[in-house]
From TrEMBL:
Source species: Nonomuraea bangladeshensis
Name of the protein in question: Type II toxin-antitoxin system VapC family toxin
């Protein structure tokens, strides 16, 4: 058996908001990724942004439940240096703090962003020197 650990996927605010609304397909996708050992990262700031879009105790509980999965990790800001880098990202891209945190994490770790809206990240990437990688989740209903 291989000890190879794949690069994590970083969940964006759109994905987290839909999970917070109880989207069974996305919850199932995260569960499937966890089962196969695919690491996933949730920015704490992005969880806050998602909960602004999908407020409520049930939404909060659904996002909190993701942290029980073995291969899901929450990324927080760690100190003033990271806060300064985040501020620079916001200035360069003009995006919300939670999207800037996702972009910063993706750039630092060279990890793809898991999103429902590829165009959102194409616009963000246009303001950066280094490329952003993203994976758009297809809507099975389309």
């Amino acid at each position: 058996m291989s000890d190879h650990v794949p690069a994590p996927y970083i969940l964006d605010a759109g994905v987290l908001a839909e999970i917070a609304r109880g989207d069974a397909d996305l919850i199932g996708l995260v569960l499937d990724y966890d089962r196969i050992g695919q690491p996933l990262v949730i920015s704490a700031l992005t969880a806050a942004g998602a909960l602004l879009d999908a407020p409520g105790e049930e939404a909060s509980a659904l996002l909190s439940g993701l942290t029980a999965f073995e291969h899901v990790q929450v990324a927080a800001l760690d100190g003033v240096e990271q806060a300064a880098l985040l501020a620079q990202m916001i200035q360069r891209t003009g995006v919300d703090p939670w999207d800037a945190h996702v972009a910063a994490l993706a750039l630092m770790a060279t990890c793809p962003i898991l999103t429902l809206d590829r165009s959102r990240w194409e616009r963000t990437a246009a303001g950066l020197d280094d490329p952003l990688y993203f994976i758009e989740i297809a809507d099975p209903g389309e």
